[in-house]
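Re: the 280-residue chain
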Amino acid sequence: MSHTPPEFRGRIFSDARSGFHAAPHRYHLYLSLSCPSCLRIAITHALLGLTDTVALTTLPAVPDGTGGGYAALHSAYTATRHGHTGPAVAPVLRDRWTGRVVSNHAQHILRDLATRFRDGDAPELYPSAAEAEITELGELFEEGINGAAQRAGEREAGTGAVEALLAALDRVEERLAEPGGPYLLGESITAADVHLWVTLVQLDTVHRWHLGADTVRRIAGHPWLWAYARRLLALPAFRDQLRLEEIHQRHHSRCRGLEAAGAAVQIIDWTAVEPAGSYV
């Protein structure tokens, strides 16, 4: 019998009178860096310099607990929901005071880290003036790139998904080619950059394995996009969280699809760090 993981959507507040408030050393993150949502959270945690404020534990690349969950998270789930027998999935933000899960909803965790724990020197990842644009870009990354790449890797999908994927990449390419700054929204890094970079990692290290060689070459034919990916790779907050072997392990433990010719056409070398230069 399969079990659907419960959704815990607690939020962090600035007011100490609320249930979960932004107290240093109170919360603990549990992340598997092979998971794209967890990778986004880990990069955000690093960009904000939260090492001494919010503890972080990395989990195995492949779930090692019941039903596709993590053994290390079982006690947190049972403390939060009595009698829980299903999978204890990541990401998790845990309250160290009570031992309970605050949230396992990636979007809420990302936003709460960036807005409740940010100090004055850290980047503003969700600037109020760019909220709508960040949301719109996120939908493009998830539906236009991730979703289309997933569909394109299914042999019965035909060519429509490939064209949708390439059209989404064209939109991002055009945006990055415009003058105004090295990042998606100008001269300052935002949550949209973290989201896009992780999306590109997934495209080259996971989805590529199930695409045709010609499709991968067309994906690679976006020079501004992949130069951008290399520039962000030069930043420690991005580079130090990337676990290529773990991503490979997770993919091959979960994937039952056929490998395609694109597996042999790597787009960029994610182990080669180029100088950051003036762009970062």
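The two ends are 50 Å apart (CA to CA).
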